[in-house]
């Protein structure tokens, strides 16, 4: 997935859940933060950031897209990106566990809510929920970085689908290249870790992939081990 033209800046502070203040040249400007996570490891005053300019009737002219860490690692901060990466990778045949399915629908009802995708093919259907991961500690991607009632509901819905005989997957997309494995972040939300392990025990397939991130594009690359 190619980025739109990116504009460099410097992170200053978080204004609220979905807004930050950045330095753009000599100006201090607000920008939209398309991620509701805490992102404490990314939103550090003085860190370099890159934004995309957006048109239309908006409160801010910019979306924060990429954060640069002190070691040079680039991290995508946009929680909307993993769904696009999943669709691209599936269409290109780059997700072997899901290549038996031949059709894709997005934002489909399941239980009392919705999940990201429904795949279908000659052998039946499968539901897929995609999660954005930005936190990495000691080479391990961690999700969530804050309690997530919504994430717990998604796991419960996937378990119900599996109990009804429908295949179900959750895909954790680590939006940075430095993760060697993935595990649930029990310190941030122990209940999510519990229900994720229960989902795996009930046949929900847990997948994790990392990404290559540059200032031109972000790509889903290779699978990484899931540590439950």
TrEMBL record:
Q: Where is the Sugar fermentation stimulation protein C-terminal domain?
A: 81-216
* Transmembrane segments annotated in the record for this chain: none
Q: Which GO molecular function, any one, fits this protein according to its record?
A: DNA binding
InterPro entries referenced in this protein's UniProt entry, alphabetically? SfsA, SfsA_C, SfsA_N
Record domain SfsA N-terminal OB: where: 12-75
Taxonomically, the superkingdom here is Bacteria
What HAMAP family does this protein's entry cite? SfsA
Q: Which family does it belong to?
A: Belongs to the SfsA family.
**Under what name is this protein listed?**
Sugar fermentation stimulation protein homolog
Organism of origin is Candidatus Thermoflexus japonica
The beginning of the lineage is: Bacteria, Bacillati, Chloroflexota, Thermoflexia, Thermoflexales
